[in-house]
Amino acid sequence: MLPFLLSLLLLTGAAAGVQGHDDAAARRTMEEFAGFPASDDGEGGRASPLRVDSESLQRQIDELASFSDSPAPSVTRVLYSDKDVQARRYIKGIMKQLGLSVREDAVGNIFGRWVGSEAELGAVATGSHVDAIPFSGKYDGVVGVLGALEAISVLQRSGFQPKRSLEVIMFTSEEPTRFGISCLGSRLMAGSEELVRSLKRTVDNHNVSFVDAADSAGYKIHPDDLHNVFLNQDAYFAFIELHIEQGPILEKEGIPIGIVTAIAAPASIKVEFEGNGGHAGAVLMPARNDAGLAAAELALAVEKYVLESGSIDTVGTVGMFDKLAFIF
User: Fold this and answer.
1) Distance (Å, whole) CA 145 – CA 127
2) Closest listed residue to residue 81, CA positions, set 44, 108, 111
3) Cα-Cα-Cα-Cα dihedral sign, residues 202, 105, 67, 214
4) With helix as H, strand as E and coil as C, how does the chain read?
5) What is the pLDDT of residue 38?
6) pTM for the whole thing?
7) 2-50 pLDDT, tens per residue?
8) What are phi and psi of 41, to 5 degrees?
C-alpha cells in the first residue's frame, strides 16, 4: 500500500512538470519504485490506466493561487484570513468530489479519507499545507495537497481498492507568518503540550489572540479543546509527502524528482543590539556606538563560521533586521 501510493505521488510530481507519460511508462515507474509488479489488471487482462491528469492538476493549482492577498504571480495566504478560509473551502470541495470522508479538527487540520476494506488498520496518510507566507510561490505545500488528491483520483480511476484507508491531510499553519509558530497543526497532532500552553497566550502583531483568530475563521475553540487535536500513536501506519524542491540542486542537475533522505532541523535566535544615536556628521567615529554595525558584524561572523565549518549542507543566515527605534 505505502509503496503503491508513493509511486503514484512520484508520478504526480513528475507529471506536474513533464507532459505525455504513457501508461506503459507509468507502469514501469510504478514497478521500479514499488518493488513489485503492477498487477491490478482491467478487463481482458489489460492493465488499467495509471495516468495523472496534469492539466487538471495545474488548473487546480492555478485556481487555488487566486485565493491570495497579493497580486499574481505571488501568493499571500495567512492563517485564518479570508483567503485562507476560501482556500480551505476549495480543498474540502475537491475531497468531497472524490467521495472522501471529510472532517476537520479543532484548529482546522483537514482530513479527507478514502475508507479501506480493513478500516480498523492504521491509515496511510499523505498531504501538506496551503497557507503561504507573504509574496510566496503557488507550489509550496500546495503540490503536496493537490498532488495527493490527484494520486487518489488516479487510484480510483484505475479501479484500485485500498485495504488500509488512505487519507489526505491539509495541515493548519505550516508557515509561522501570523503567530511566529511553524508547523502549528502538525505539532498539535503530535501531542505538543508546550504548544498548547503557548497558544493560550499567543497574539499576532495586531494583538489578536490565536483563539479569536480561529473563531473569525469559523473554528470556535475553547483552550481545552486543543488537546482533542492530539493523535493516538497508532492512528497512522505511515505518512509520505510530495513537495517541491526549495533549492536549485535537482533543477541544476536536470533531475525531475528526488527522494528525501534527510530533513533540515532549523533553529532561530533573536538578538537585540543597543546603541547610541548621534548626528551623522558631527558625532565622529571614536565616539560612535552604532547598533546596526554591530549587528552586521555578527551576521558576517555567522556566514564565516558556516563557510569554514566544512559542512556542505549547513546553512547559517540572518533573515531580518528590525529597526526598533531611532532616538536623536
Assistant:
1) 5
2) 108
3) negative
4) CHHHHHHHHHHHHHHCCCCCCCHHHHHHHHHHHHCCCCCCECHHHCECCCCCCHHHHHHHHHHHHCCCCCCCCCEEECCCCHHHHHHHHHHHHHHHHCCCEEEECCCCCEEEEECCCCCCCCEEEEEEECCEEEEECCCCCHHHHHHHHHHHHHHHHCCCCCCCCEEEEEECCCCCCCCCCCCHHHHHHCCCHHHHHHHCCCECCCCCEHHHHHHHCCCCCCHHHHHHHCCCCCCEEEEECCCCCCCCHHHHHCCCCCCCCCCCCCCCCCCCCCCECCCCCCCCHHHCECHHHHHHHHHHHHHHHHHCCCCCCCCCCCCCCCCCCCCC
5) 53
6) 0.81
7) 555 555 665 555 554 443 445 666 556 545 544 445 554 444 444 456 7
8) -80, 150
pLDDT digits (tens, 9 = 90+) for 172-217: 999 999 999 999 999 999 999 999 999 999 999 999 999 999 999 9
Give me the residue label for grid cell 512538470: 17
**pLDDT for the residue 321:** 81
Hey, how many other C-beta atoms are within 10 angstroms of the C-beta on 30?
Answer: 23
Q: Residue 154 in contact with residue 52, Cβ under 8 Å? A: yes
Q: How many residues does the chain have?
A: 328
CA 318 – CA 295 distance, rounded (Å): 10
C-alpha cell at 169: 491531510
The tally of CA atoms less than 13 A away on the side-chain side of residue 118 is: 7
All cell numbers assigned to 255: 533531475
- The domain segmentation of the chain, as residue ranges, is 2-253, 272-328
Give the whole-number percent of the chain exceeding pLDDT 70.
83
Instruction: Assess if CATH 3.30.530.20 describes domain 2-253.
Output: no
Q: What is the CA 276 to chain-centroid distance, rounded?
A: 42
> Amino acid letter at 42?
G
